[in-house]
Amino acid sequence: MCRKLALHDLEKQSVKVTLKMKITVGSETEAYELITFGTKFQKNSSFYLQYAEENEAGKVQTTVKNKDNEILLLRNGAIKMRQLFRVGEMTKGHYESMYGMLALVTKTKYAHHQWNDMAKEGRFDISYQMQMQGAEPGQYEMTLTYKEEA
């Protein structure tokens, strides 16, 4: 009998995660950086990176899924978010917080994932324009690096 592997059954590798984000709306630019710890693992043809963060709203568990030519960003906890990145395409998503749900429209300029087996580190580079609930669109540059812990 073939048993389907659940995500918690997979071999997970601990990683140190660094998220750098630059957001430009109009003439205003803000940047922030988060350093945290998480896990990476492979399931079938999909790669997963998971990490936790805490912000003013509370705890958030983030999952980044890379499969074929798309990257899916899922956040659960104090903030719930679903955002799909496909280069050159407009994709719909949502952002939900204690203030309610907002519709997202994302146009991805580039979304790239690479892994260096020698250095045991990888990175996601994503550049996109996002409009939230019809507001002025912002330009987002996201770099997510992760390195295996010894």
What does this structure look like?
- The chain has 150 residues and is mainly β.
- Helix content is 0%, strand content 74%.
- It has no helices and ten strands.
- It has strands spanning 13-25, 28-43, 46-55, 58-67, 70-77, 80-85, 90-97, 100-116, 121-132, 138-148.
- Strands 1-2-3-4-5-6-7-8-9-10 form a ten-stranded antiparallel beta barrel.
- It is globular, with a radius of gyration of 16 Å.
Mean pLDDT: 91
Spatial extent as radius of gyration: 16 Å
Main beta-sheet annotation:
10 strands, antiparallel, barrel
Order of helices and strands: EEEEEEEEEE
Distinctive features:
mainly beta; disordered N terminus; 0% helix; single chain; 10 strands; 150 residues
Q: What's the layout of helices and strands?
A:
Elements (H helix, E strand, L loop, with lengths): L12 E13 L2 E16 L2 E10 L2 E10 L2 E8 L2 E6 L4 E8 L2 E17 L4 E12 L5 E11 L2
Antiparallel strand pairs: 1-2, 1-10, 2-3, 3-4, 4-5, 5-6, 6-7, 7-8, 8-9, 9-10
Short note summarizing the structure:
Helix content is 0%, strand content 74%. It is mostly beta strands and 150 residues long. Strands 1-2-3-4-5-6-7-8-9-10 form a ten-stranded antiparallel β-barrel.
